Amino acid sequence: MPKVVDHDVRREQVAEATWRVIGRDGLDGATLREIAREAGFSTGVIQHYFLDRDDLLAFAAGQIAERAGQGIAQAQSELAPGLVRLRAMMLILVPRDLESARVSALLSFWARSAIDPVHNAIHNQAYDALRRTVRIEVVAAQEAGQIDDRRDPADIADSLIAFGDGLCVRSTLEPTAFPEDRREQLIEGMLIALAPSRRTDS
Amino acid sequence: MPKVVDHDVRREQVAEATWRVIGRDGLDGATLREIAREAGFSTGVIQHYFLDRDDLLAFAAGQIAERAGQGIAQAQSELAPGLVRLRAMMLILVPRDLESARVSALLSFWARSAIDPVHNAIHNQAYDALRRTVRIEVVAAQEAGQIDDRRDPADIADSLIAFGDGLCVRSTLEPTAFPEDRREQLIEGMLIALAPSRRTDS
Known about the structure:
Two copies of one chain form a homodimer.
Chain A: H1 2-29, H2 32-39, H3 43-49, H4 53-78, H5 83-93, H6 101-104, H7 106-113, H8 117-143, H9 153-173, H10 180-193
Helix pairs in contact in A: 1-2, 1-4, 1-7, 2-3, 4-5, 4-8, 5-8, 5-10, 7-8, 8-9
């Protein structure tokens, strides 16, 4: 069914163009006209794939979680459970190339989710799943002795996710103070801080 | 000079009203008319105190840092240096009453700072100062043996600030999963994770 595939690909291309426009001009600037121009399509083509601007923005917001989820699924299939996967997941949440359109749109969608129930529902569904997934790896890391097992795995998972979100904020707003190698160093430092205390070695 | 005081108080009242409107309706919804209505003034009064909407929004953004700075200065004058102050600072960045208008406007101002040089400058000036202040307390906590001194204090300070920012995001968007007592518990867990490893005790 090549037509169905084309349809999906086209929608994803439009979502990516939407991220870029939002990253550049904010959510206000993300008009159908501007998104169409960025995607290299006519406004009519965009309207063929989306009901209206709200429908497109909701899809573009959902695709942020979708892409992160794809990266996480790949990490799960390729890497051993526990700390190694956890590190990979953090680097998906705080990607190396923060210039990537996916991250630059994030802050605008968060602000929108704070006041818009539709976007809040999209956001919370994604983060519910993320928090469960990260918790599973924390448990695996605790069982492997890689992370302190005296703390609630849900607390550790949610703290890691909050830390990753905060790093996205800091890196977007203060890119000079939070360059790529420093972000990785801070993530590594956080994972080390969560390691079992040396007392358990003695 | 009671007139000068009144002027400042009035401007702060308008800033608080601006936070409330942004928290409810987003930055788009924060028109001069709506802010005036929220503050209980006429639009003319608002225009007496601010050049235009941009001037008001910039002031309201700066006041977020100003208020946090006042809380931090109070913590510095009342509490012992090191871990106790650091904990107090985290609870100023992630305040108990997250419903407070100050935090609900934060996500919108962050999104704006990502695309608006004026807001980015206001934001970065505030965070530069914050990062320096927190680093000083991390050093004090390290010297007191309360925090692992093998790590760069700037890295620990910036990680704590990113964690606090992320907790503000999580708590605003997922208030059910991040209630007040859990936020404090996660902050405490983070400070414990940064403690010196037990090896130094043996």
